Structure formats: C-alpha cells, structure tokens
Amino acid sequence: MKILVLNAGSSSHKSCLFDLTQSSAASLAPEPVWRAALDWTHAAGQVELTAQNQAGESIKEALPMTDKAEGLAAMLNTLVQGPTQVLGDLSEIAVVGHRVVHGGRDYMDSVRIDGQVKAAIRRLIPLAPAHNPANLQGIEAMEQILGNLPQVAVFDTAFHARMPEAASTYPGPYHWVEQGIRRYGFHGISHQYVAQRAAHLVGQDLAQLKILTCHLGNGCSLAAVKDGMGVDTTMGFTPLDGLMMGSRSGSVDPGILIHLIRQEGYSADQLDELLNKQSGLKGISGLSNDMRLVVEAMEQGHPQAKLAIDLFIHRLRREMGGLIASLGGLDVLVFTAGIGENSPLVWRRACAGFEFLGLQLNAEDLKRAKEDQDIAAPNSAVRVLVIHTQEEWAIAQACVTLLQPVA
To answer: Given phi > 0 = left and psi -120 to 50 = alpha, else beta, which region is 69?
Structure first.
C-alpha cells in the first residue's frame, strides 16, 4: 500500500509518501520514500517547490504561480517524473491522509472523507480560521488531481475529544457550552503517537500507564494520558491557551486584555497580533522565538533572555504539576517536538523539583540522540523518554486502520 500524507497550511504545504508494500504498520516509523513542500511565502507571485526521494535525489525551484491547487499538482508531479520520481503513475497511490486541525465535537477519531465530513470541516472554520480552510482546500485539490481516491481526515483535536467535562468546560456562563466554547486541545496527533510509542518502549500496555506528554516546539502543549486516552491538556478553545510558547503568550489574566482595550484602545486584531506573534520567548527576550538563540543569548549574559528561559521553565513545571494531579500519579514522562527532542537544558530544568515522585534523570548521559531514548536513571520510579514525534506516520497508520477490511 502506498499512502500519501498531506499537511495543507495557509502559507505552506508539506507532503510525503509511505510505501508499505514491503513493510507493515509497525510502531517504529519507516522513512518516507518521497518528501516535498511548497512555500508560498518565497516571493510575490511565486511558490518555492522542494522535493527529495529516499535515494537522495532532490529538486528545488521557484514556480510562477499563486493558485494552491496548481501548486499541489506540480508537487505531485515530482512523484512521477524528474529526478525525484518514485512512482510510475499517480494511480499507484492507495489513499491520501490529511492533517485536519479542528474536528470540533463531531469527530473523536479519524474518518474517511465524504461530503458530510467536508461540510463539517467547513462548518468548523470559525473555530480554526487559519487552518481548516487550507485543510479543506487540500482535500478538494486532491479530489481534483487524483479523482475518486479514498481520503482520510486525521483531526488534531480528536485525541482530546473524550476528556471529562470537568476538564473540557470553561467556568463561564453555561451557554458557552451550548455554543461550543470549550477546551478542545491541539497537537493531538503528536500526543497520541508519542504516548503509544512510550508504551511500546517501556514494554507495557498503554491502558495501564499514566503518561504526561510534553510537546514543546514553537507551539507548546501538554497532555495527560490515562487508560489510553487524553484526559486533560493545556491548550484550549484555541492553541493560544496554556504554556508560554515561541511567540504566543499562553494563558494570561483576561483582565489584562480588558485593560488594554479600555486604556490603550486595542482592537481585536491588535490583541491577536500581540498574543500570538509578539509574546512568549520572543516577547520577553526581545530577540527571537527560537529557543536555541534565546539560550545562547542567556549564556552570554543577556538579562531578558535569562528571564524568558526562567519564565518558560516556570510555566512548564507549573502546568506539568497540574496535569500530574489530573493523572493521580506518573509512570512515564515524554518530551517531544523541536525543543522537547533537542534541549537537555529543558529536560534538566523541567524535571527539577519532581524528585518527590521518585523521578531521577541519568545526569551523566543527557544529550541529544537520533533515536528515541530513555534519559531517566536506572532506579528512577518514573521513566523519562525523549521521543521523536512522527505525525506523518501516525496519519498513515490511521489510513491503514480505516482501509483494512472488517473481519
């Protein structure tokens, strides 16, 4: 089975192809045989297309086009011709899996796409105005290019959709609940994958473990996983809630926003820009949303950079403690995504203070690795894992599951 995975965004499209003809849907992710991306921010009136195959052949070119469907067609063309060719014909693709950001309360699992699913994605655009339109556009472009091929929607919110009402409800007026204003959570594809991978690594049944997964990248969120399900998370109605992030504030006192509206005359758009793009590591350091650059500045004595790192860790540990309480204990702690997979400083400082749980790191061997790793000391009561998230493979696995014939 050949599975095409598409992550369609407003300013970029990323895609890869898995060939399961000679492999199975095991827990360890295989390498895609082809990857490609479209960058629509490259230059006015152009899109930058990059592609490479497993053999190491690659292309990079700027194409004079602005139509997204036309760009996707050009991207898929690199599958069947040119130096990155890996297929004889596009008809060899068995299914297309899509990352769809918002499934609302409608979808708790991945689903095969039909007219009803597309209508739901469209109806949920107000909850994800920057993402669902692009996701839907990608689905419709694949229909146009590939015809009546099975397509699967894998929702970023689905893993959190079974949270208890006490965890998903905001303490505002009850009609918020009726309006669909609730904690949805995001990064669900990543949280689900690393939780399943963690259970595999420790050799235990996922349903028997209490797992805290820390997805730390430019966007950051935590998830509490118990009985194999997400029972609490830090992101909420939008991805702005919860942890301090690269350029997002995370949770702030709503009274601050009221103050800025009343005293400074801020508009909704100005608040959006402030909280989503000018806050977090970038806002406090005054330098960058890139953790690596902020750490480097801190080590050179930059006071705002030091405050940014201290604040990031403080907020992270506070939210970790809250979700450990939701779990009622902790068996496995997982770090993943760009910061989570690559920052020993964050591992050390995030875990400091949780010794009362019996958590101990292997202090002599805290370094980045290409493979998933256990960084806890041998006698630690809590296993601490660094897992490379494989969202594309998780989407491909969902496609395999949905297309398997029922016994």
So the answer is: alpha
- Global model pTM greater than 0.85: yes
Residues with Cβ < 8 Å from 40, sequence gap 6 or more?
Answer: 10, 11, 12, 13, 47, 66, 68, 71
User: The domain spanning residue 146 has which CATH number?
Assistant: 3.30.420.40
Q: Structural domain of residue 367, as residue ranges? A: 203-391
Sign of the C-alpha dihedral computed for residues 220, 224, 227 and 229 taken in this order = negative
Task: Specify the length of the chain in residues.
Answer: 407
C-alpha gyration radius of the chain = 22
SS (H, E, C) 103-116: CCCCCCCCEECCHH
List C-alpha distances in Å: 302 to 41, 89, 238, 346, 349: 32, 55, 32, 18, 19
- The pLDDT tens digits of the residues spanning 245-281 come to 999 999 999 999 999 999 999 999 999 999 999 999 9
Please give the backbone phi and psi of residue 197, each rounded to the nearest 5 degrees, phi first: -65, -35
Instruction: For residue 113, give the nearest of 346, 376, 398, 407 by alpha carbon.
Output: 398
Position 165 in a domain: no
Residues that are catalytic: 156
Among 98, 131, 155, the domain boundary falls at 155
Do residues 264 and 355 make contact, with C-beta atoms less than 8 angstroms apart?
no
